[in-house]
Amino acid sequence: MKSKEGTFQHSFRVRYSEVDSQGIVFNANYLNYLDVAITEYFRAKGISYSEFIERYQLDFHVVQSLIDYRNGAKFDDLLEIALSPSYKSSKIYWSFQMICGGKKICSGMLTYITVSHVTKKIVSLPEEVGRLLKFEVKVDQKPTE
After folding, report:
1. What is the DSSP secondary-structure string of 96-135?
2. Three-class SS of residue 8?
3. Nearest to 113, CA basis, from 52, 68, 65, 61
4. Quick one: residue 49, left, alpha or beta (phi over 0 = left, psi -120 to 50 = alpha)?
């Protein structure tokens, strides 16, 4: 899979315990794969997720997950995950796609909300954190006239 600027790549093999009786990855496991890839994204940016929470007193909660399933991955397939994060105010958008052998398995978007680890209230993502994690600032597109 070709990587575009601002895209993070992570790959791993499907384990036997992740497939259903039809021999394909059970659909809920794709969210687990994304969770692993996002955790690795943080690590690649120089901070573990647990260090991030401790240092910035912030956490993220999933508020929306959209997945477009195209093909089923199978046991021992090598999945390549591409993540492209962006943010606006308190929301973080994780655009993603999963590829196996050049075939698109699924794609979509996860939306996180930024929450104070102390107060448990929604807060805007500090610019410092956006820079640290190299998130693109999401800009609303205006309709063309």
Report:
1. EEEEETTEEEEEEEEEEEEEETTT--B-PPPHHHHHHTTP
2. strand
3. 61
4. alpha
Lowest-confidence pick of 80-84, 96-100, 117-121, 138-142: 138-142
pTM of the full predicted structure? 0.87
| Overall number of domains in the chain | 1
- CATH number of the domain at 54, please: 3.10.129.10
Taking a C-beta distance cutoff of 8 angstroms, is the pair 123, 112 a contact?
A: no
Beta-bridged to residue 87, according to DSSP, are 92, 137
Q: Say which amino acid occupies 59.
A: D
- Domain coverage including residue 114: 8-137
The answer to whether 84 and 95 are in contact (CB under 8 A) is yes
